[in-house]
Amino acid sequence: MKAVNLEKLLPADVPPGERILWHGRPEWVSLGRRAFRADFIGAYFGVMTVWNFALATSSTGPLDGLVSAAKTLGSGALGLAILFSLAWLSSRTTLYVVTSRRVVMKVGIALPIFFNLPFTSIVSASLRAYADGSGDIPLALGPDQKIAYLHLWPHARPFRMARPEPALRCVPRAAEVAEILSRALIEASNAAHNPSSATASPARARADEGVAYPTDAVAAA
Questions:
Q1: Calpha distance 9→29 (Å, rounded)
Q2: pLDDT over 70 (residue 5)
Q3: CA 97 to CA 22: how far, in whole Å?
């Protein structure tokens, strides 16, 4: 794992004793499929290719059918190339960091934006795991913490418009990342409630906080 200069990453001074527990970026193919909806676009153009081929063939013959299908297929390929290019750029310009006290998200292709999310502002976290090992880790924020959905996208839980949730999107080995974040949240909760018992059990920490930590995965294709 490469070293990260946390002082340059965070938008505020780093408190003494803060440690980087994990850092990474989205897996770009997974990001293209899930955040940029390339699977749906590909399926749409696949159906339209077959439809246009059948329609043109029945009207003017198989040659025109092939020409029409090729045009539709080419348009679809171009569209997918654009989507995956955006996904690659988004991945390359994104950095997620989990420290012992906060989650930091550096996002934005043209203009980098920092989201500094202390554990005290995180109400709950969850994991949605995909079949390829990548996954999303959405972070629900407190009622006094709100970030516009458009400022977050694609680094947001899909379709949560009224209460946008920042999310670590399509991170590789998502279950391991979720476990790291879960332990950090529990330790921070224990330390906040009783500094002398920072090693209290995870069950006790959850009971004290009423916080849902990313211990259970929701599997998805």
A1: 25
A2: no
A3: 6
Per-residue tokens: 97: 């960091």
Burial pattern 40-54, b for ≥16 Cβ within 10 A else e, equals ebbeebeebbeebbe
CA distance 137 to 59: 50
Q: Residue 78 and residue 72: Cα distance in Å, rounded?
A: 10
- High-pLDDT (> 70) share of the chain, %: 81
Look up residue 107 and give its two tokens: 């996002």
**How many alpha carbons fall within 13 Å on the CB side of residue 12?**
10
Place of tokens 């013959």: 61
- Among 84-88, 102-106, 147-151, 199-203, which range has the highest average pLDDT? 84-88
The residue extents of the domains of the chain are: 19-26+96-220, 33-90
- CATH fold of 19-26+96-220 reads PH-domain like (2.30.29)
What's the token pair of residue 193? 């409630």
DSSP line for the chain: -----HHHHSSSPPPTT--EEEEE---HHHHHHHTS-HHHHHHHHHHHHHHHHHHHHHHH-HHHHHHHHHHHHHHHHHHHHHHHHHHHHHHHT-EEEEESSEEEEEE-SSS-EEEEEEGGGEEEE-EEEETTS-EEEEEEEPTT----HHHHTTSB-TT--SS--BEEEEETTHHHHHHHHHHHHHHHHHHHH-GGGTT--HHHHHHHH----S-SEEEE-
Are 53 and 66 contacting, i.e. CB atoms less than 8 angstroms apart? yes
